Amino acid sequence: MVDLVGSCRAFVSVSETGSFTAGAAVAGIPQPVASRRIAALERRLGERLFDRSTRRARLTPFGREMLPSAKRLVHLADAMEHDAKRAKLRPLLVAVPETCSTRDLAELGAQAREFEVFLEFRPAPPGERAELVRTHEVRAAITAVPAEDAVWTVPLGLAGIGKPRAHTIHLETLRAGRSGSPRRRVWIQPEDDVPHVRDRVLRVRDAVGLQPAQVAVADSLTSAAASVIGSADLLLCSAAQAHELGLQWRPIGEIRLARGFDVMAGLGEDAGHLRTRLWAEVGRCLGATGNEGDR
Fold first, then answer.
1. How many Cα neighbours within 13 Å face the side chain of 64?
2. N or C: which end of the chain has fewer CB within 10 A?
3. Which whole-number Å values give the CA distances from 103 to 112, 145, 182, in the listed order?
4. Residue 95, helix vs strand vs coil
């Protein structure tokens, strides 16, 4: 089987230098290889390309006719290789939760480069990340899904400024007027303002008799944390977030909650990079606690 591109490259190089030896050097191959490739091309085309009766490699009339086509083929092959290298370096833009820290994302990006995957990140709230994929503004997104459908899960609990006496915090202990204490609230940050988390908290709120205003959705994690740091309120968050904010974290007594995350991408290959090769590093950014065998 003729290596058509390689043969044409040898043909063009020899024709331009007028020598099989010099042409082979330009093509980056040994002289015998260049001779074999040109001979194979001649057999395929059915005519001689060079007049070998002289010391110089002189084109035959047929060779002169075929040279422009050979040059176009070589040029297209070079352009394709250049485009392939550029495509490998094209960043994979990923929409990620706003809860991911800069350091964790940088470590994820560094690990991805070992697989020749170049990541860039666009933090966005959960309701926007999937839409960014659908509108082709990003190539992939870490999306919020129910924990039972998730690739990564992040357990959630409640955190506050005081060290809790118990190993769990029961929402029923926050009922208004209990022990004469001020009415305490639970703040839900934007990342958890999704039905499979928010609605479950609201159902428990109603079941244990809390006032509607005792569970509130904050405009941002910063504003939620500020409310908690300045009062006896509690923040619904992960243990890692609580540690970062200097808060004391405990699981919720009445319900087990977790964030769930999956990947949405226009191309399966892009999703595969994040789900498989970079599974552990993505999980670290999210604060996930799963086992690799659970994938």
1. 5
2. N
3. 14, 25, 38
4. strand
- Number of domains making up the chain: 3
Element (H, E) at 154: strand 152-160
What is the pTM for the complete model shown? 0.68
What are the angstrom distances between the C-alpha of 16 and each of 6, 23, 97, 108, 155? Answer: 15, 7, 57, 49, 68
Q: Decide: 179 and 138 in contact? Cβ < 8 Å.
A: no
**CA 118/CA 88 separation, integer angstroms:** 8
For residue 240, the Cα-to-chain-centroid distance in whole angstroms is: 22
Structural domain of 214: 152-258
- Both 145 and 215 in a single domain? no
Counting Cα atoms < 13 Å in the Cβ hemisphere of 184 gives: 25
Q: Are residues 158 and 145 in the same domain?
A: no
